[in-house]
Amino acid sequence: MSNVKPNSLSNSLTPAKSALLAGAGIGLLFMVVKRQHLLSYWNRFQNPLKRKHVVLIQNINDCQKVVNILKSHCSDYKVLGFDCEWVTVSGSRRPVALLQLCSNRGYCALFRLCCIRQIPKSLRDLLADEEVIKVGVDPGYDAQKLAQDYGVGVASTFDLRYLATMVGRKPEGLAKLSLSVLKVTLDKHWRLSCSNWEAKDLTEKQIEYAANDAFVAVEIFKILAREFKPRLSWLSDFTIIKCRIEPFLEMQFNSSVSQKRSKATLNKSVTPNKTQNRKLSTLSKALYDNCLLQAPDGELLCTIDKRKAEWYLQQQLGVKIEAEPFTVRLNFEPASRAIGEVGRYYQTPKENRCVVCGDRNAFVRKNIVPREYRKYFPVVLKSHTSHDVLLLCPKCHQISNISDFKVRNKLSEMCDAPCNYHQKLPKPAELPELRQVKMAARALLNHAEQIPLERRKYLETLVLNHFKESEDINWDMIREASELHTREPNENYCTHGEKVVQKFQTDFGGLKELEKLWRQHFLNTMEPKYLPPLWDVNHNANRLEIRATQGRVTEEDMLIAGVPLQKE
């Protein structure tokens, strides 16, 4: 008989069970740890603020190491979030107490300048590095305070509101941009923003508040940059993006005339240069005179400005009927009369106010279809372009021009026409004869009433001889001559605007589509509340259809415009 006990078999399986239980335990532990990691990653994804790493610097010895880390992060992504905090006592501002810089990797360095008492050379060099863009909302203001308090120059500051405008977002403050772009709510309670930044020890809430401002600034920039150039990865196209925003570096985002400070003026150790101003041609007087032009039978043709009305009188092409409103009746039958909504648009008086916000104090003319494209249109699409010249106040004009960058960027990709690709090619030589005609037309256009009669007739003859098929000079002829291309044609030289126009003529449905693209962009980005009645994105297409029924436009022009011919 066997001496094996009944439970010996079960005892022999104990090591296997132990191994199995041990494996299950390790697996369970791994799953718990992995779950914690996943939850941690998920929380960081849900709340970007958890991705930052904050370092507080209170002495010079720690400064060098932190600056080196920031510089290393800037080697592939030359952008830093930038902000400053200070204390105001009894209405008097004290020196900047805290400087915040954050890299694209979420490394937030808080420099307690009130403790360090100076800005070390390594930090000065980083702030003065023109290749590293310092982003925030109104960063130039903070840079100015650093210059005043510590004599340090901060180069290449960039206001995020410019980039927000370029991609079609509202140019709002940092908290609102953080909410709309990052879906992150910042704590902007006044008790924090106005707290004692010179305290011996900063509270956790103060540290979080300060770090968040610099962190969200660079995160907002990264997302808006991708929206601006969505097809290409950021790291491979930093140069392209910087080229687009470079005109707005160190420029204050304000409501009237943008001022770009010279970098040298921010550094007290350098002799200041004169401040550079970007000037706009601002009109304080009314642009629309709303004078009336009548056909010989008294039918209203259109409203015109007083200078053009007086030109008809000087040329003895009409007679003055009334002084108020100033009315001129032609003594010859015009080529056409006002027809349909197109005709009524030109008959309707226009208001001297910003078409976006309604301001009546100062105006800037806005070419809805920019001249860099319009000047390459055929004559039939360049005449009667007042429909696409609207009045904007300086603030709205600035915002509109910034938003146009996005469309230019889109057209560059659509038409394989980089905005600066022609710069390496030699410019065509200027033709003196055409320049003479152009200058004569501009003189007649702008100063006809001041030019002596004999001289005026000579200038008119120059213009008339250029248009050999015409015997009588007219206002449209003068305006067309004033926009002549005066350089010798060169098939190897082609600007961005010219190539875009060529592409739309052949590949994208005609020039009416290019006009519609710009007009619709203006409507979408600016949301104008005071457009002239009957202003229409299809205006020129409708006008050409009317002219076609009158036999006043060629089949070739209709094809270039992309307007289908009406079959009889």
UniProtKB/TrEMBL annotation:
<dbReference type="InterPro" id="IPR002562">
    <property type="entry name" value="3'-5'_exonuclease_dom"/>
</dbReference>
<dbReference type="GO" id="GO:0031966">
    <property type="term" value="C:mitochondrial membrane"/>
</dbReference>
<comment type="similarity">
    <text>Belongs to the EXD2 family.</text>
</comment>
<keyword id="KW-1133">Transmembrane helix</keyword>
<keyword id="KW-0496">Mitochondrion</keyword>
<keyword id="KW-0472">Membrane</keyword>
<keyword id="KW-0812">Transmembrane</keyword>
<keyword id="KW-0378">Hydrolase</keyword>
<dbReference type="Pfam" id="PF01612">
    <property type="entry name" value="DNA_pol_A_exo1"/>
</dbReference>
<keyword id="KW-0479">Metal-binding</keyword>
<dbReference type="InterPro" id="IPR012337">
    <property type="entry name" value="RNaseH-like_sf"/>
</dbReference>
<feature type="domain" description="3'-5' exonuclease">
    <location>
        <begin position="54"/>
        <end position="229"/>
    </location>
</feature>
<dbReference type="InterPro" id="IPR036397">
    <property type="entry name" value="RNaseH_sf"/>
</dbReference>
<keyword id="KW-0540">Nuclease</keyword>
<protein>
    <recommendedName>
        <fullName>Exonuclease 3'-5' domain-containing protein 2</fullName>
    </recommendedName>
</protein>
<dbReference type="GO" id="GO:0000175">
    <property type="term" value="F:3'-5'-RNA exonuclease activity"/>
</dbReference>
<dbReference type="GO" id="GO:0046872">
    <property type="term" value="F:metal ion binding"/>
</dbReference>
<dbReference type="InterPro" id="IPR051132">
    <property type="entry name" value="3-5_Exonuclease_domain"/>
</dbReference>
<dbReference type="GO" id="GO:0005634">
    <property type="term" value="C:nucleus"/>
</dbReference>
<dbReference type="GO" id="GO:0006310">
    <property type="term" value="P:DNA recombination"/>
</dbReference>
<dbReference type="GO" id="GO:0003676">
    <property type="term" value="F:nucleic acid binding"/>
</dbReference>
<keyword id="KW-0269">Exonuclease</keyword>
